[in-house]
Amino acid sequence: MGIQEVRNYFREKGLKHEILEFNASTATVELAARAVGVEPGMIAKTMSFKLRNNEVILVLTAGDKRVDNKKFKATFHSKGKMLNHDEVVEITGHPVGGVCPFGLKNDLPVFLDISLQEYEYVYPAAGSPNSAVKLTPAELQNITSGQWVDVCN
Asked: Which of 13, 40, 131, 152 ranks highest by number of CB atoms within 10 Å?
């Protein structure tokens, strides 16, 4: 599971984006920004939430933003509970620190916070805690079929 599934996903979709791998960890926004050499906001962090009806969704935000609970609840009509480490691996197929919206074990709805649109390029993980891929926000939306939302403060 993880980076190989992302590689397979990109190959199957005919995507030519290079998956970047680093010797250093990219498991946190700060570590990823340092490894990639960009500001923290350009790291597209992927968070997995369980909604009241047990539906699991992925929400990607700019790395320097925090989810606003009131906006989240208004958007999804539910409080969101973040998955624990075991649930993340079981449901997404990716390890914590490498979760991304590509090559998922299960088909999950993807939501992209508008904070990502502040940047020309963003860097989501690519299935491992030492990987990333450089995408424009439009490419990210196109690849994931993600829906734009406003859930950050």
From this structure: 131
